[in-house]
Structures are given as C-alpha cells and as structure tokens.
Amino acid sequence: MKGTLYIVSTPLGNLEDVTLRALRILKEVDLIAAEDTRHSLKFLNHFGIKKPLISYWGEKEKLRADETLQRLKDGQAVALISDAGTPGISDPGTLLIQKAIEQGINVVPVPGPSAVITALSLSGFNTEEFTFFGFLPTKQAQRKKMLSRISLEQRTLVFYEAPHRILEAIADFAEIMGDRNVVVIKELTKFYEKVLRGTVREVQERLEQSTIAGEYVIVLEGRPETEVLNMDDALAEVRELMRKGLGRKDAVKRVAGAYGLSKKELYDRSLEGN
Fold first, then answer.
1. What percent of the chain has pLDDT over 70?
2. 4-8, 54-58, 90-94: which has the highest mean pLDDT?
3. Where in the chain are all domains bearing CATH 3.30.950.10?
4. Domain boundaries 116-220, CATH class
C-alpha cells in the first residue's frame, strides 16, 4: 500500500501559530522532508519532535524528491515542510507534490500559516479579488517590465521581496505604478514585525530612513477604476506604458482590456504619427 504525503504548514515566525494537527502529523510520520534541515531542527526540537529528516533545498530538490517518492511508494508517511509557511507557495516543494500526484500517492494538506494571506488580512485593502506574484524579478530591467505589464491591474497585488532589494523595488513601484496606497510588512509575526502604511512614495521615504533587515511582503492597492472619456486618453495610457518598456502590442492589449475598447482601433491609432 502506498503511503501519504502531508503538506504541513509551519509558523512564519511565532511558534505559537503552529496548529495542533500539524504537531500531531509531524509526530506520527515516518519521515520529514524539510527545505533546510538546520532551520527546521530548531522548530522541531522546540516541540520535542524527533523524526528522520531529509533536505530538499536548492539543487537537491529533484534528487531528494525521487528518494522521498520511493519512500512513499514503500508505504511510508512523509510530512513536507518549508522553512516557514506553506510548502510550494514561493517555496520549494511543488516538484515533490507534482510527482506524488502523478504516481497516485495520497496527498493531504495540513493548512496553517501563509505569508500572503496573513499580509492581505492585515492590509485593509479589497481582498475579494487579489493577485499574488511571489518574489519580484531580481534584475531591475525585468522587474520594471513586469510592473509595467501589470500596472493597469485593478485587483489587490501581493509580492514578496528580499531585504537587499526592497529599496530598489519600492523605487520602481513609485516610478511605474504611481503613488497609490501600499502596505509593506517586515518580519511577519516575528518579534521585530513592522507595518508601514501610506502612499508608495511615503513608504519609500520611511524605508530609506529605517533599518533594512528580514523578509518583506508588499501589498499594493489595485489601480483605481477610472473611466476613459475619449480615445486620446487611451492613447496617452498606451504611450506611457510603452515609455516604461512595454511593447506596443502588449500596451494596447492592457489598455483596451482595462477600458473595453477595440484593440484593433486602438492599435491603429497608436501607429499614427510614427
């Protein structure tokens, strides 16, 4: 009989956030597949959990996924955990989950903390519709291109960012996304948790004056819904997106979709005078 793969969410920082079910599963399984065993040992030792550990971090992920899959085929129960939060959500783990599903292994979620959901609940923005993008591109040119592509998005936007890139990222937000409202959260649920609220430029100034450390979650208010009164307004939007690095075809598609205009007409008009 095949075993079971448990996707176990662990605390983002505050150990009191672990669920009773998560602790029980971790005590009962035959093996724990951890993103980084050194990090997970601190968590497991705190709760007196002594189980065999296997790391699937980085280059090891494919090799260890195959090893873990064999354990599952042999009937063992395995708990998949990441360093913090839910495995597979901008964290390693997806490969093992996919392989287990393909092999007909029973996959069971053990829900709990997730940084994206925690940040959304704290933001105060509209949460009926949101889009999660994970970590922003590391290179500025790629990051700016991505932000230009999504600059007309009216849903709430959520991003993760590393400390050594947070100032550059917020500067790009100010340049490309406009001065809309944003919430930047540092070290969610941890002792030094800090929440910065305000317009993008206000938060940018406060970040520049603060100590940069830890992981960050950025929750950006969606673009306010506005009405384009005429084609000239739409063309201005297209030109602005192109100035920020988006191709003509993509810029037209974004603007036409946002305002219910004819893509062909808008595209043809955008070529006039060129």
1. 97
2. 4-8
3. 116-220
4. alpha beta
Long-range CB contact pairs, 207-211, < 8 A, 24+? 207/166, 207/167, 207/170, 208/167
Give yes or no for a contact between 78 and 31, defined as CB atoms under 8 angstroms apart: yes
Instruction: Express each pLDDT in 100-158 by its tens digit.
Output: 999 999 999 999 999 999 999 999 999 999 999 999 999 999 999 899 888 888 899 99
CB atoms closer than 10 angstroms to residue 136: 22
Q: State pTM to two decimals.
A: 0.82
Cα 35 to Cα 115: distance, rounded to the nearest angstrom: 17
Which is nearest to 6 in space by CA: 27, 267, 16?
A: 27
Q: What is the topology classification, in CATH, of domain 4-113? A: Cobalt-precorrin-4 Transmethylase; domain 1 (3.40.1010)
Q: How far apart are CA 115 and CA 189, in angstroms?
A: 9
